[in-house]
Design a protein that fits this description.
184 residues, alpha+beta, eight-stranded mixed beta sheet, 26% helix, globular
């Protein structure tokens, strides 16, 4: 199944530099949380205007995420580090975002409460992101495939999704890979 999503446009000079498709592709498997909406799992990426890092040590262990926020300041996409992710690529990606840690984690708690009140529906999927060339736009686009992770990675993905109040859409042996595309 193929989904396309348009990129939201911020007024010139106001949009923060977001990670590129190539940078995100280097992460390997990640847990992706996204609003349920037309365009699939990458629709939130297409709407993102800025990104923030959230790092915390929770009861069950450390948790690191990149939160993507749309132009209205609403969360639209979130990526979580898994044991199967490329830690060096992750560290390189979040290094310029470190100063936003506390604010992002505090905001996440408020959004978690909103979801529990069923204000909006979110999905959680383990994805492998990749950069792909768009012949239509002549630029790199972001694509994602559902992927398998180690038992530890799957356990952590389930824990994060459960803590967020979202069921994990985990692949099983009969699933095929689906491609999702979002242009940026």
């Amino acid at each position: 199944m193929l989904w396309h999503a348009r990129t939201s446009q911020a007024p010139p000079g106001t949009q923060q530099a977001l990670p590129t498709p190539a940078q995100l592709a280097g992460l390997g498997p990640v847990l992706c949380l996204s609003r349920v909406q037309p365009g699939g799992a990458l629709a939130g990426w297409a709407q993102a205007a800025r990104s923030e890092v959230a790092c915390a040590v929770e009861r069950e262990g450390p948790c690191e995420a990149i939160h993507f926020v749309d132009l209205r300041g609403r969360p639209c996409w979130r990526l979580y580090l898994l044991p199967d992710s490329d830690f060096l690529a992750w560290d390189a990606l979040i290094a310029p975002l470190r100063k936003r840690v506390d604010r992002a984690w505090h905001a996440a708690r408020g959004h978690r409460l909103e979801r529990r009140l069923h204000v909006e529906r979110w999905s959680a999927t383990v994805l492998s992101l990749r950069a792909t060339w768009s012949h239509v736009d002549e630029r790199l686009a972001l694509a994602a495939d559902r992927c398998f992770v180690s038992p530890l990675g799957l356990s952590i993905a389930h824990r994060i999704a459960r803590n967020e109040g979202i069921p994990l859409d985990a692949p099983n042996s009969t699933d095929c890979c689906c491609a999702h595309h979002a242009w940026r």
